[in-house]
Write a structure and sequence with these properties.
Blueprint: H1 6-12, E1 33-38, H2 45-55, E2 60-61, E3 65-66, E4 81-82, H3 85-93, E5 97-103, E6 106-111, H4 112-120, E7 124-128, H5 131-140, E8 145-150, H6 154-164, H7 169-184, E9 191-194, H8 198-211
Parallel strand pairs: 1-7, 1-8, 2-7, 3-4, 8-9
Antiparallel strand pairs: 3-6, 5-6
Helix pairs in contact: 2-8, 6-7
Bound molecules: adenosine-5'-diphosphate and guanosine-5'-monophosphate (5GP).
Guanosine-5'-monophosphate binds at residues 41, 45, 64, 68, 99-101, 103, 108-110, 128-130, 132-133.
């Protein structure tokens, strides 16, 4: 792992036995759950989720479709489904997304079929999406657990985006402008977590995901 927080991350991964996803309902059937993770680009959502999934491989991360170009190291079908604008528009017109939104000049959407199938099979599905999409999910899945990740400061957010070294100056400016509006909406979410000290934020995320009431 090339990230500067890799060592902390690997320590954090070893200490989790007390939390498990007990997905059995009282009648013995499995109950699906939808978890929505939102927060400004660069706040650390992807890094937190990667660590959470290592602790809890039973969680399913929904793979979004996007018209954005892959960053170095990103793999089609793993990080995103990288598709053209034409393909995206076709999916929108055929109602194939649970939600979708435009972000920093690109489109992003959550494919409906795979998420619905996983929920029906009793899986716990995590969506990592921006604010407009999270608002749409609130309408269609009001029972979803909705979590907002905050940066300790805008300066730190900017330094994380720049430190990631993957976006052009223009793309960074667009992300920072959008970040302020997103942060203002943090209170719309069930839980807010400040990603300052990584392990603390990861523990809170884990507790939040596994403490919410099971619906079903
Ligand atoms: P997002 O998915 O929200 O766009 P990333 O997960 O790509 O953000 O994280 C952006 C950068 O911030 C990465 O380089 C990551 O290693 C770093 N990062 C994440 N969490 C922390 C933290 N708590 N402290 C310092 N750097 C962090
Ligand atoms: P990035 O280009 O940095 O990978 O993602 C930009 C933003 O798009 C992030 O805030 C990310 O959470 C969001 N995003 C990723 N996939 C989806 C999606 O399927 N729907 C929506 N609405 N936003 C998404």
């Amino acid at each position: 792992m090339g990230s500067p927080i890799a060592a902390e991350l690997s320590n954090a991964l070893s200490n989790t036995d007390h939390l498990t996803s007990n997905r059995q309902t009282s009648n013995g059937r499995n109950s699906g759950r939808l978890i929505v993770l939102t927060g400004p680009s660069g706040v650390g959502k992807g890094t937190l989720l990667q660590a959470l999934l290592q602790r809890h491989p039973e969680l399913k991360l929904s793979i979004s479709a996007t018209t954005r170009s892959p960053r170095t190291g990103e793999i089609d079908g793993v990080n995103y489904y990288f598709i053209t604008r034409q393909q995206f528009d076709l999916m929108v017109s055929e109602n194939e997304f649970i939600e979708w939104a435009e972000f920093a000049n690109n489109c992003y959407g959550t494919p409906k079929r795979s998420v619905e199938e996983q929920l029906a099979a009793g899986e716990w599905v995590v969506l990592e999406i921006e604010l407009e999409g999270a608002r749409q999910v609130r309408q269609s899945f009001p029972e979803a657990t909705r979590i907002f990740i905050l940066p300790p400061s805008i300066q730190e957010l900017e330094s994380r985006i720049r430190g990631r070294g993957q976006d052009s100056d223009d793309a960074i400016d667009r992300r920072l402008q959008r970040a302020k509006a997103e942060i203002d909406a943090a209170n719309e979410f069930d839980v807010q977590i400040i990603n300052d000290e990584f392990n603390e934020a990861l523990d809170r995320l884990e507790q939040t995901v596994f403490s919410a009431t099971v619906v079903g």
